[in-house]
């Protein structure tokens, strides 16, 4: 066979093998990175064929062939680790400190967004410089690597956002130049956070515990500043993160925000999604000021507050760095037509399911602390069904924001697709199901099969155990939907007003029985789901079985079994029952005044 045919055949075989590997490979799920719902599909153009080359000079020619210049390797960016920040309302500003942080005013963040877990490092920024020819900022002799980039003006930060967006096949947010730069918040590319987004995230978003600094009340635990930095910036991510898993939002480097700065802006700020005032002092030699947040390694403790504001000329580099944001474009809620239930979106991701040894010790201590009132016997074996802790990766899905209500369940019964609950009363109420006064309360006295039938009628299904737990815990694998510390004000469990207990006499939530769904907004989970810690236990789709070790992808539990699983705590439970890892085991025909359910829906290919 002529040599040219052998070469062609070899190329064809290799091409077929490569195509087969690509087609068969599963989509990887990154560990520790919050996946963005609805990623764009990037179509790669076929390689451009080079034009034919001119004939080479003959052996007798005196011409010297030109020396080929090697093509530099393309510079690949480092994909940032992004954290999903759900919508919510918070009090922006502070009553103490500078006047520009006053008055304190309510702000609603209506659109979910992603925020980088870390400040942009020199390693990340250097790649941008190498690819674009931009001069690398100095490291002041401290070293590069994972230290936050500083010496970056606002326009440099904007250029980096657009560069990274284009590198990842996303739509850049920024257009225009200089002080005429515009931001399209509906684009899916990278951008700078607004001041309101930054402060909301620094405070911990919907999971805020009210700390004065981002992550705690001890500045040395959460921040690099004048008293502990040694006079230099420090590698990102070395201090304690805040409630959302964000690092260095107090100290290390100042961070540019999108907003033009206005010292009296808070008095006229919009109530929803404020993005700053128009630019001022535009005709001064150095131009208008842009807002920046956080603080710097050389500043004092008085500048570390999550409410602290500062500014700089947009064209000034100084000690300024930045972190990235992205608008979460996939819809985060949808309304189910059959029962008008609101579902929240849970993006694909990975978490640790179950309880570690240390988490089991905490559960046992919590049980013993609150069991003194009613003499419950707490043993370590009570938590064995939560072991071993294991990694679980899940595709994106939807889950009901609240438990299914009496009113919604009545629709299914009226349609002939569901049978009525076994009982029509609740623990303290003779009339409950069917009584209009309790239409917005969770339905109880239903079996797991009745719950499953309802979800099918509604066009959904019961969540798997893994889906339920991930919606409650998130990528950080929190102990409770709101964080890692029990807080009796954030849920409905058995407390001082509970005639079945009390198990938590320190608070009184006002409900000795079930509460209207969504009554505890401060107990919201990372994805926007409510009542995952209390009110009623909830049926899931799995048969009961002990966990297997090792990483699992979209687990659905044993294929068969003799008992089903309810998840979460309820209105008559102890605080340790409200942990997101808590799981039960009941007969298939089990019903009680404390068990209800919610539905889930797998993300379709079209929604991706």
Quick recap:
This protein is of the alpha+beta class and 608 residues long. Helix content is 17%, strand content 15%.
DSSP strand count: 23
Please, what is the average pLDDT? 85
Q: Over the alpha carbons, how many angstroms does the gyration radius reach?
A: 28 Å
Query: Helical stretch count?
Result: 9
Form type: elongated
In order across it, which strands form the biggest sheet?
A: 1-4-12-7
Instruction: Report helical residue fraction.
Output: 10-25%
How far apart, in Å, are the first and last alpha carbons? Answer: 49 Å
Low-confidence stretches: 1-68
Strand content bin:
5-15%
Q: Tell me about the biggest sheet? A: 4 strands, antiparallel
Overall structural class, as computed from helix and strand content, comes to: alpha+beta
Describe the structure.
The protein has 608 residues and is an alpha+beta fold. It is 17% helix and 15% strand. The protein is built from 9 helices and 23 strands. The longest helix has 22 residues, at 3-24. It is elongated and about 75 Å long. The two termini are 49 Å apart.
Short key terms for the protein model shown above:
alpha+beta; 23 strands; 4-stranded mixed sheet; disordered N terminus; about 600 residues
Task: List the SSEs and their pairings.
Layout: H1 3-24, E1 82-85, E2 88-92, E3 105-109, E4 113-116, H2 122-132, H3 154-167, E5 174-175, E6 182-183, E7 190-191, H4 195-202, H5 219-222, E8 254-260, E9 289-293, E10 310-313, E11 320-321, E12 325-327, E13 333-335, E14 342-346, E15 349-353, H6 357-371, E16 390-394, E17 397-400, H7 406-414, H8 448-457, H9 465-473, E18 537-543, E19 552-553, E20 563-567, E21 586-587, E22 595-597, E23 600-602
Parallel strand pairs: 8-11, 16-19, 18-22
Antiparallel strand pairs: 1-4, 2-3, 4-12, 5-6, 7-12, 8-9, 9-10, 13-14, 14-17, 15-16, 17-23, 18-20, 20-21
């Amino acid at each position: 066979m002529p040599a040219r045919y052998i070469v062609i055949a070899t190329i064809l075989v290799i091409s077929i093998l490569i195509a087969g590997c690509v087609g068969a490979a599963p989509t990887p799920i990154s560990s520790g990175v919050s996946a963005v719902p609805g990623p764009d599909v990037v179509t790669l153009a076929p390689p451009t064929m080079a034009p034919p080359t001119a004939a080479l000079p003959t052996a007798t020619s005196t011409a010297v062939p030109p020396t080929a210049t090697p093509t530099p390797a393309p510079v690949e960016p480092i994909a940032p680790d992004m954290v999903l920040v759900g919508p919510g309302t918070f009090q922006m500003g502070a009553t103490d400190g500078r006047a520009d942080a006053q008055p304190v005013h309510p702000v609603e963040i209506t659109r979910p967004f992603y925020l980088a877990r870390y400040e942009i490092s020199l390693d990340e920024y250097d790649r941008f410089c190498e690819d674009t020819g931009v001069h690398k900022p100095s490291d002041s002799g401290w070293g590069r690597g994972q230290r936050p980039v500083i010496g970056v003006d606002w326009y440099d930060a904007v250029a980096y956002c657009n560069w990274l967006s284009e590198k990842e096949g996303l739509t850049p947010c920024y257009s225009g130049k200089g002080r005429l730069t515009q931001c399209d918040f509906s684009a899916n590319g990278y951008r700078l956070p607004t001041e309101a987004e930054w402060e909301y995230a620094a405070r911990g978003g919907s999971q805020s515990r009210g700390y004065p600094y981002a992550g705690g009340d001890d500045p040395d635990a959460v921040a690099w500043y004048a008293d502990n930095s040694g006079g230099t910036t420090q590698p990102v991510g070395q201090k304690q993160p805040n409630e959302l898993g964000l690092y260095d939002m107090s100290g290390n480097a100042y961070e540019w925000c999108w907003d033009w700065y206005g010292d009296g802006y808070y008095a006229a700020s919009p109530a929803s999604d404020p993005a700053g005032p128009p630019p001022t002092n535009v005709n001064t030699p150095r131009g208008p000021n842009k807002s920046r947040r956080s603080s710097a390694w050389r500043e004092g403790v008085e500048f570390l507050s999550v409410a602290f504001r500062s500014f700089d000329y947009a064209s000034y580099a100084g000690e300024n760095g930045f972190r990235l944001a992205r608008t979460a474009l996939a819809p985060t809620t949808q309304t189910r037509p059959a029962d008008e239930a609101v579902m929240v979106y849970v993006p694909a991701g990975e978490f640790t399911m179950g309880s570690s040894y240390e988490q089991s010790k905490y559960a046992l201590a919590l049980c013993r602390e609150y069991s003194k009132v009613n003499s419950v016997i707490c043993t370590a074996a009570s938590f064995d069904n939560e072991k071993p802790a294991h990694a679980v990766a899940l595709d994106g899905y939807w889950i009901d924001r609240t438990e299914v209500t009496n009113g919604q369940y009545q629709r299914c019964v009226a349609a002939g697709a569901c049978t009525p609950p076994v009982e029509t009363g609740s623990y303290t109420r003779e009339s409950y199901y069917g009584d209009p006064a309790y239409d917005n309360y969770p339905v109880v006295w239903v079996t797991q099969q009745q719950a499953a039938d309802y979800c099918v009628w509604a066009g959904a299904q019961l969540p798997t155990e893994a889906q339920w737990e991930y919606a409650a815990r998130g990528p950080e694998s929190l102990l409770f939907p709101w964080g890692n510390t029990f807080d009796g004000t954030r849920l409905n469990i058995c407390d001082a007003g509970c005639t079945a207990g009390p198990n938590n006499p320190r608070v009184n939530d006002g409900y000795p029985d079930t509460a209207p769904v969504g009554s505890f907004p401060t107990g919201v989970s990372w994805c926007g789901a409510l009542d995952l810690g209390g009110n009623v236990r909830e049926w899931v789709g799995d048969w009961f079985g002990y966990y297997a070790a090792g990483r699992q992808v979209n687990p659905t539990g044993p294929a068969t079994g003799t008992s089903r699983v309810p998840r979460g705590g309820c209105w008559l439970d102890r605080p340790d029952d409200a942990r997101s890892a808590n799981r039960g085991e009941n007969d298939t025909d089990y019903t009680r005044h404390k068990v209800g359910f919610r539905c889930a829906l797998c993300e379709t290919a079209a929604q991706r």
